[in-house]
Design a protein that fits this description.
The chain is α+β, with helices and mostly antiparallel strands and 316 residues long. It is built from 10 helices and 4 strands. It has helices at 19-40, 46-49, 65-73, 102-116, 130-158, 161-185, 191-221, 227-259, 265-284, 289-293; strands at residues 51-58, 80-84, 90-96, 120-128. A 4-stranded antiparallel β-sheet has the order 2-3-1-4.
């Protein structure tokens, strides 16, 4: 087990010294995410746009994607995306939502089947109408807002209101940057992306609660310790656990991104990014933000102003 430790037990990394830079970096990154989201938008899938998704497998060997694309473009169905995924004979077809309601979407399936004929096996067909896609989008947003609200209540009951607000700020930071990741990378944003964001919220909160638990223990043990020193001490003591958890999760996610195929690419790619951001925020956002919420959290009742690391009291 000792070989798996990337950091020694007695690390004294001054994380709080870097809090101004981490806040500056996160602030700029968040603003950029909103700018890119406003100017470029996201590559929303048919879950939100409405349309038709078909998964087919060619019977005569590797698929001729260019031939299938030209064949379907000739049907006059608007935007048609044809791409391979998994094996060489697996093809994913996306067709934009048609005007005319659900009947028009159903007619698309018949046209594609008539065009491709018996040369392919039709493995999966999904149709999402505009009304359904609108409801899915609303439910997804409500799910994320509800998760953030419940996190605030849970952390408030378990710790104090300062921790609750700090956890929500760190988690909201992760959600904003993950949405920015979709806007910048133009990875398709669909229902699995909503699931990925909710999973990232849970992962980030778990990391944050581990750090907060240690801060609370330190607070009880060193009642008059300077808050900045106390936060550094708590983060250093949880550093090995945090990095080991993140690394093992990232290894599994990287394997899924490389070998998992196109169908789950949106989920795995966003999870990979989210785990990195969640680990960063639990160290550089969730803990430092406590300094601005209540300088008395460390139990140092005589401290009216948060001091820097210089001259701080070292733990006994």
């Amino acid at each position: 087990m000792r070989l798996l430790r990337l950091f020694p037990d007695d690390t004294k990394i001054p994380f709080m010294k870097w809090r101004k830079w981490s806040f500056l970096f996160s602030g700029i990154a968040s603003v950029l995410c909103f700018v890119v989201l406003y100017t470029h938008g996201m590559n929303t899938g048919i879950d939100f746009q409405g349309g038709t998704l078909m998964e087919v497998q060619t019977k005569s060997g590797p698929a001729d994607l260019e031939g299938i694309r030209n064949q379907l473009n000739g049907l006059g169905l608007g935007e048609v995306q044809v791409q391979s995924f998994g094996a060489d004979d697996d093809v994913l077809i996306r067709i934009a939502r048609q005007e005319g309601g659900d009947e028009a979407q159903t007619a698309v399936i018949s046209k594609v089947q008539a065009s491709l004929g018996d040369g392919v096996d039709y493995r999966r067909t999904e149709m999402v109408g505009p009304r359904v896609s609108g409801e899915l989008a609303e439910n997804g947003i409500l799910g994320i807002i509800s998760a953030l609200a419940l996190i605030m209540v849970y952390v408030w009951f378990r710790f104090e209101w300062q921790y609750s607000l700090g956890a929500v700020i760190a988690t909201l930071h992760d959600v904003v940057l993950t949405i920015g990741f979709f806007a910048i990378s133009q990875v398709e944003f669909n229902l699995s992306s909503i699931a990925a964001i909710l999973t990232i919220v849970g992962y980030s909160l778990n990391d944050t609660v581990v750090v907060y638990d240690r801060i609370r223990e330190m607070r009880r043990k060193y009642k008059r310790l300077n808050l900045v020193v106390l936060l550094d001490l708590a983060i250093n003591q949880t550093l090995t656990r945090t990095t080991n958890t993140a690394l093992t999760t990232l290894i599994a996610l990287a394997a899924l991104v490389i070998f998992g195929g196109e169908v789950i690419r949106s989920f795995t790619a966003s999870m990979l990014f989210g785990v990195l951001i969640g680990t960063y925020s639990s160290i550089f956002i969730a803990a430092p933000v406590l300094i601005f919420l209540d300088p008395q959290l460390a139990g140092d009742k005589s401290t009216k102003k948060v001091e820097d690391d210089e001259g701080a009291v070292e733990p006994a």
